From TrEMBL:
ABC transporter domain segment(s): 23-249
Species whose genome carries this gene: Hyphomonas polymorpha PS728
Family: Belongs to the ABC transporter superfamily.
Single Gene Ontology MF annotation: ABC-type transporter activity
Protein name: ABC transporter-like protein
InterPro entries noted in UniProt: AAA+_ATPase (IPR003593), ABC_transporter-like_ATP-bd (IPR003439), ABC_transpr_TagH-like (IPR015860), Bact_Polysacc_Export_ATP-bd (IPR050683), P-loop_NTPase (IPR027417)
Keyword line: ATP-binding, Nucleotide-binding, Transport
Amino acid sequence: MPSIIIDNASVRYPVFDTSSRSLKVSLLSRIGVGGKQGPAYVRALSDISLTIGDGERLGLVGRNGAGKSTLLRLIGGLIAPSSGQVKTKGRVIPVIERGIGIHPELTGRQNIELPLRLLGATKAEVLAARDEIPDFTGLGEFIDLPYKTYSEGMKARLVFALCTSIPADVLVLDEWLGAGDIDFTERAQRRLTEFLSRSRTLVLASHSLELIERVSTRVAWIDGGRVRMTGDPAEVCDAYRHHMSAAAPGQVAAAE
């Protein structure tokens, strides 16, 4: 039974109003972006079709700007497709946006309930998170200070804790755990491993091809906003490595 069905989905973003910018209109028209009048658009994803089964763990690879983050946001319900359809089954938790549902003027403690409610948490789950999150994040007295005063690492701690505090049917994960000290990173990895064991379906984009191969049951290579290849993790990752080596010898490919 599929957890996620993506049917011929495309995402495009308006760039600006080109009605009074004739030079840019001309240049964009020559490369097939936008028209002579009105807004210009950039296609982040083009005609994506994927079916992700219940219990499957799909890894995403591709160079920076390939469209992986846009695809994660699409699956996570944070954006809607410009065309096509995306259907998901069950509770979807997107560990993507660091500021989802968070009010910068409120304290870390005060910011626990709204994001969890937006993620579909029950009253009991919110109450449990209020007890557990302050201790896990290790924010100490900062948990009662405004979120806007937090460093990037502190913000990452709070949002990661929020997104992994309630069970998910589908976990959508963009790797950004680098912020923070070694102790927190280790605790976050342990928490993530436990969280994954309780989540039925995973969609993951990571800088580490080794991690992608180890965690995934299938891998999709995203290139230029399209699915270039899907299949066995080792085969797809090897094909991607060879492609990147040929394109830029000596450079290590990085995920988006």
